[in-house]
Amino acid sequence: MALRLVQVNFKSWDDSALGRFWADALGWGVSSEGPGVTNVEPLGLVLPCRRVR
């Protein structure tokens, strides 16, 4: 089974600048959920839904 990186998590004084750097370096998208939170993930990422039993 192949692995695929889908998220980068980091702590930084300027998370938005670091997020933009990684987004540019990886060709990914960047978004934010609020102050101090920057998300970097592949463009068009759709994770499969898990069934909980």
Strand content: 15-25%
Please give the count of helices: 1
Order of helices and strands: HEE
Poorly predicted sequence stretches spanning 5 or more consecutive residues:
none
Structural class: alpha+beta
- End-to-end Cα distance, whole Å, is 23 Å
Mean pLDDT: 84
Query: Can you give the helix content as a percent range?
Result: 10-25%
- Gyration radius, in Å: 13 Å
| Anisotropy-based shape | globular
The major pleated sheet works out as: 2 strands, antiparallel
Q: Could you give the count of β-strands?
A: 2
Main-sheet strand order equals 1-2
Secondary structure elements and pairings:
Blueprint: H1 15-26, E1 29-34, E2 37-41
Antiparallel strand pairs: 1-2
Can you walk me through this structure?
By secondary structure, this protein is of the alpha+beta class. The protein has a domain at 8-42. 23% of the residues lie in helices and 21% in strands. It contains one helix and two strands, in the order αββ. Strands 1-2 form a two-stranded antiparallel sheet. A hairpin with a 2-residue loop joins β1 (29-34) and β2. The radius of gyration is 13 Å and the shape is globular. It starts with 14 loop residues before the first helix and ends in a 12-residue tail after the last strand. The model has no long low-confidence stretch (mean pLDDT 84).
